Amino acid sequence: MIPVRGVDGLRIAVLGLGRSGLSAARALTAGGATALCWDDSPEARQKAKDDGHILHDMSRREAWEDVASLVVSPGIPHLYPEPNKWIARASEAGVPVDNDIGLFFRSLATPEWDRFERAPKVVAITGSNGKSTTSALIHHCLTQTGRDSQLAGNIGRGVLDIDPPDDGGVVVLELSSYQTDLARALTPDVAVFTNLSPDHLDRHGGMGGYFAAKRRLFAEGGPDRAIVGVDEQEGRYLANQMSEGPADDRVIRVSVDRKLDGPGWSVFARKGFLSETRKGRQVASLDLRSVRGLPGRHNHQNACAAYAALRTLGLPPRQIEEAFHSFEGLPHRSQVIAERDGVQFVNDSKATNVEAAACALAAFDRVRWIVGGQVKDGGLGALKPQFDHVAKAYVIGRQAREISLDIAELDHEVCETMSVAVARAIADAQPGDTVLLAPAAASFDQYDNFEKRGEDFAAEVEKQLS
Predict the structure, then answer these.
(1) Are 66 and 50 in contact (CB under 8 A)?
(2) Domain ranges of the chain
């Protein structure tokens, strides 16, 4: 645990008692504060009470007296589409609002660090897509090469639940826009921006607000190194803002769209080959084509960002390449779950929108595509450029018949259930095919979440191949 510093004797309200809220309450208590906990859910309140936390009804008139600050969970809106009523009340009362990420950054460093030979480092990763894979890949490579590393934030453990890092330790944080938007302290040593595409726009008041939330990690944090994907205009703008000139190697530009040149520090991938250039010269290259856990262009972008971060931490290229090959990928994200008779089975249940599904389809030459669920606004029309990768589609979900009209030009079959879709795909598959679950839709018509959908796919594949 990371005890929160500077709160001894203070009364601090905690709103939202999920993983991050309960973690914050424990860390505040360990730092000497009185954590006053509340959640609108009676079940969450009871769980917190059972764990020994103090419940604090924020609706009472005197609830905000002597409260030094309010710590909120990331899922609670503080501005758009409208502020949560208790956050609005805190603002009216002049009570500062923060989150667990802000508490973490202000509490991580301790006087003990003065005795370390190498101060611990924090690598923070944000962006629209690829954050989890990039974070997990960095953590994997560090541990594979013997470096002390902890993975936390939006993946792994809550940030305040990790152990205080030892001499030379690295903390790898995946941070969503919800987390970076509100944190009052953001001071990573290395900050990574993967890419940007529209997401959570209602929460941020539009695309500009969404980008601004991501940008705070760099503008507020002032990292020693900024690793920036420059394949969108927002990334190019961010890299320009962080750089003092073309040769400023504190900014590492990353691309999978084109070769990057110039006197600065760049990492890019083309046709499956990763290249690192500095001062206009190539200094290293890696062949990503045979890295099983990182298939496709989108994963090559993740590999470039992770490679750049690892290089700033002192890892040599060959150690990074070796560690890449032992990375198995994350569950439900281009995860190879089985192979038989030249057919591979890939679980990308996390591909809940057309952008992610397009990346998944583009990663394989001949796909037996399992698609469907609750389709988001706009339908599946944007996937048409990838249809030439699809041998046949197998449509699942309650909207299966409607979805079939969106992909009418493809050879397809309405299956409705995962069991039928897997069975038909196995029956049709030929050597060299990939049976791919990339739904391009939310899971809630049939499953509690995308994880449950992916687990069902894996279970059906295992059952029907046995």
Answers:
(1) no
(2) 11-98, 103-325, 335-465
Q: Is the dihedral of CA 191, 195, 200, 204 positive or negative?
A: positive
Beta-bridged to residue 276, according to DSSP, are 267, 284
CA dihedral 417, 419, 424, 426 (to 10 degrees): 140
DSSP 201: H
Q: pLDDT tens, 83-101?
A: 999 999 999 999 999 999 9
Helix or strand (DSSP H, E) at 369: strand 367-371
pLDDT tens track for 318-355: 999 999 999 988 889 989 999 999 999 999 999 988 88
Predicted structure pTM score = 0.90
DSSP 314: T
Beta strands at 281-287 and 273-278: parallel, antiparallel or unpaired: antiparallel
Cβ neighbours of 366 (radius 10 Å): 16
User: Would you identify the CATH topology of the domain 11-98?
Assistant: Rossmann fold (3.40.50)
For 219, other C-beta atoms within 10 Å of its C-beta total 14
Judge contact between 327 and 333, C-beta under 8 A: no
User: And the tokens for 284?
Assistant: 């290293």
Homologous superfamily, domain 335-465? Mur ligase, C-terminal domain (3.90.190.20)
- What are the start-end ranges of the H helices in 116-232? 131-144, 177-182, 201-204, 207-219
229 DSSP β-pair partners: 254
